[in-house]
Amino acid sequence: MMKNKLIRYIIAVVLLGVVVLPTAAQCGGEVLDKAAAAFEEANGISARFAMNMRAEGAGLIESFEGQLQMKGDKFTLFMPDVRIWFDGKTQWAYMVGNEEVNVTEPTGEELQYLNPALLLGSYKKEYKAELKGESSTASGRMAYNVELTPKKKGDITRVTLQIEKKSYLPARIEIDMKNGSRTLIQIDEIKMGINQPDAFFVFNTKDYPDAEVIDLR
Question: What pLDDT does residue 25 have?
Answer without folding.
Answer: 44
